[in-house]
Design goal:
The protein has 13 helices and 20 strands. With about 500 residues, it is α+β, with helices and mostly antiparallel strands. A hairpin with a 6-residue loop joins β19 and β20. α8 packs across α9.
């Protein structure tokens, strides 16, 4: 059963590479007998929470809350497989070329001298390695002659600096980043130029989004030390990698969906409490503050974006974020807000009467929008595109506006054109790590299980619209939910947020 030195017979079977790190293949990550990395090197504070320092946020083996090392490794493997396969199919080079992927972190951004904005990592970089510190670079190298998914991952990070850490907080450094992320190697970011020089050879295909600099200083460094020398010697231009990462991000894993479901639940409850808090004379700023408070008390990291809190006619300004007016008795308030929970976001819009009850014109217009939304929700199924649902939305809005006497004597294409006047935005966008997630992915593509999208029809009638009946002027209404595409019926992640007229009025009674 056992060979000399074996405690259990299985250890000799781990002498080859498996689908995840083992103590034999990755001794810098695991000790013999360990399935996932031991926390021994993570006993100090790093530049982000770990299972050792923040056990209320992470479990052992997780790089970020809810996402384990193995999942990040799998994402990198899927990316390398995608780019090498694409290159082989479209460039006729096969898979023997050496492929190098370079993804850059976000920099720290400042609102004033020595006053930084809260740091938010670039989503593509975060998706591939989970590292949350600025001024870093991830480099993935294919292994020629091996399967496309096989690769080496090197993470270049800022080295520890006691002087800077006194002001900015702890850094992970190369040792902490290695143990935290599970990459193959870490280097000091100061070594970026010398490290990249090896990829100037003509057999390397470099994947780097050089026309979309995320971090200007690091972009310029990469261009000077790698891109420019390659082009000067007539070597192939770089290939854009961002669209491949976005393609992977479109379909969520079970762990990602758990985070998105939790974000939706937190925000839904925050909306409930904000509705209950509402009263005539409340300011938009107070409602924003209550919503932010409830989201953070529920466990959210922050609001996902500057919220729209728009009373009365201000709801007809689609991206109104001034939130500095008072909402008077009898007026509606439109609130478009969401929260971010460990790197994943939700996006909800609700419209409610500040006095607790809809007037008859408000109710008629609200029921029209809600009816359109319910129909569009049921269209969120595999093989249907968001652009198709948008076309359906315009037709339905046109019909509803005709019934209310707001649009007259229009049909067919004329009806949808008239509907665009009252709903000038799309029905949906993709959702995930960002609110308008994966923006390079076409909304004409067929939906697939695992995607999460919004459904957000609206009707907006400006107070100076003399073509509309007077009772509807100055009313703006939108209802928005987040939807998971499944093999069967769509799953509304934000279903706990009230939207029926009776529910809202009962809640606010």
């Amino acid at each position: 059963l056992l060979r000399p030195g074996e405690v259990t017979s299985h250890t000799r079977a781990l002498s080859r590479y498996l689908g995840q790190p083992t103590a034999h293949t990755h001794p810098h990550l695991l000790r013999p007998g360990e399935v996932t990395s031991h926390t021994r090197a993570l006993s100090r504070y790093l530049g982000q929470p770990t299972a050792h320092t923040h056990p209320h946020l992470l479990r052992p083996g997780e790089v970020t809350s809810g996402i384990r090392q193995e999942e990040f490794h799998r994402r990198r493997s899927q990316l390398m497989s995608a780019v090498t396969t694409h290159h082989g199919n479209h460039r006729n080079h096969g898979n023997n070329s050496r492929h190098v992927v370079i993804v850059v972190s976000s920099p720290v951004k400042f609102m004033a001298v020595d006053v930084p904005y809260p740091f938010r990592q670039d989503p593509n970089f975060l998706y591939l390695c989970g590292f949350k510190e600025p001024n870093s670079v991830l480099v993935l190298e294919s292994c020629p002659g091996e399967l496309p998914a096989n690769h080496r991952a090197t993470l270049l990070v800022p080295e520890r600096n006691p002087d800077r850490e006194l002001w900015d907080g702890p850094r992970s450094g190369t040792d902490g980043a290695l143990q935290l992320t599970g990459v193959d190697k870490t280097l000091n970011i100061d070594d970026l130029g010398s490290f990249l020089a090896q990829f100037r050879s003509p057999d390397c295909t470099v994947w780097f989004d050089q026309h979309r600099p995320v971090h200007r200083a690091l972009h310029d460094k990469i261009h000077a030390t790698l891109i420019q020398p390659r082009t000067q010697h007539g070597k192939p231009a770089t290939q854009q990698v961002g669209r491949f990462v976005q393609q992977l991000r479109l379909q969520k894993s079970p762990s990602e969906l758990r985070l998105m479901e939790r974000a939706a639940d937190i925000a839904a409850q925050a909306f409930v409490e904000t509705m209950k808090f509402s009263f005539p004379g409340v300011s938009e700023a107070q409602l924003q503050g209550r919503l932010d408070f409830e989201c953070r008390m529920g466990g959210a990291d922050m609001l996902a974006y500057p919220p729209v809190v728009a009373g009365a006619n201000r709801a007809n300004t689609l991206h109104y974020i001034s939130n500095n007016q008072v909402i008077n008795s009898g007026e509606l308030v439109l609130v478009d807000a969401g929260c971010e929970y460990h790197g994943y976001v939700c996006d909800i819009t609700r419209t409610w009467p500040i006095s607790g009850r809809f007037t008859e014109p408000q109710r008629q217009l609200y029921e029209a929008v809600l009816s359109v939304q319910k129909t569009c929700l049921q269209l969120c199924r595999p093989e249907i595109s968001l652009d198709h649902i948008y076309t359906v939305m315009l037709t339905l809005i046109g019909e509803q506006l005709q019934e209310l006497g707001i649009i007259r004597e229009a049909q067919g294409y004329g009806l949808t054109q008239a509907a665009r006047k009252y709903c000038p935005h799309h029905i949906s966008h993709y959702l995930g790590m960002d609110v308008h997630d994966t923006p390079d992915m076409s909304r004409a593509s067929a939906l697939q299980p695992g995607m999460v999208v919004t459904v957000e029809p609206g009707i907006y009638i400006r107070e100076d619209d003399v073509s509309a009946p007077p009772e509807f002027r100055g009313i703006g209404i939108r209802v928005e939910d987040d939807v998971l595409i499944t093999e069967g019926d769509p799953e509304v992640l934000t279903r706990r947020c009230p939207k029926e007229v009776a529910e809202i009025e009962e809640l606010m009674a």
